[in-house]
């Protein structure tokens, strides 16, 4: 794995699919617009393939490994709970380091 390819090579993801899957690093619903923004950078010509086609190919590759992307009606997509567990080491590496409680910004109130 490298910074440009945070997921195992066995997943056989191309750059676009890697970027799409990376959007699921936070445990939130990924809006349609966020995924559209990723595929827009890879479009050739004025139209290109719609989002559902790109998701079809990504789901196909991930489904072989038991990883599922679920549709959330009128909101977007999210990883299934079991998929989030399976991808946890890879997704954690994509998140920015979080400050520990009481870390930066905490001050002592000693008088």
List keywords for this structure.
111 residues, mainly alpha, Arc Repressor Mutant, subunit A, three-stranded antiparallel β-sheet, 4 helices, 3 strands, 40% helix, globular, disordered C terminus
| Shape label | globular
Distance between the termini: 50 Å
State the low-pLDDT regions, or none. 103-111
Number of strands: 3
Order of strands across the biggest sheet?
Answer: 1-3-2
Give the topology string: H per helix, E per strand.
HEHHEEH
Which architecture per CATH?
Orthogonal Bundle
Mean pLDDT: 85
Binned, the helix content reads: 25-40%
The CATH C-level class name: Mainly Alpha
Number of structural domains: 1
Assign the structural class, choosing from mainly alpha, mainly beta, alpha/beta, alpha+beta, or little secondary structure. mainly alpha
Q: How much of the polypeptide forms β-strand, as a percent range?
A: 5-15%
Number of helices: 4
Radius of gyration: 17 Å
């Amino acid at each position: 794995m490298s910074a440009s390819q945070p997921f195992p090579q066995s997943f056989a993801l191309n750059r676009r699919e890697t970027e799409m899957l990376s959007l699921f690093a936070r445990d939130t619903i990924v809006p349609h617009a966020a995924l559209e923004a990723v595929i827009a950078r890879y479009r050739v010509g004025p139209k290109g393939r719609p989002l559902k086609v790109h998701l079809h190919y990504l789901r196909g590759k991930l489904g072989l490994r038991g990883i599922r992307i679920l549709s959330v009606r009128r909101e977007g997509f999210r990883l299934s709970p079991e998929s989030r567990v399976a991808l946890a080491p890879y997704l954690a590496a994509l998140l920015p380091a979080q400050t520990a409680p009481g870390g930066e910004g905490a001050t002592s109130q000693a008088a």
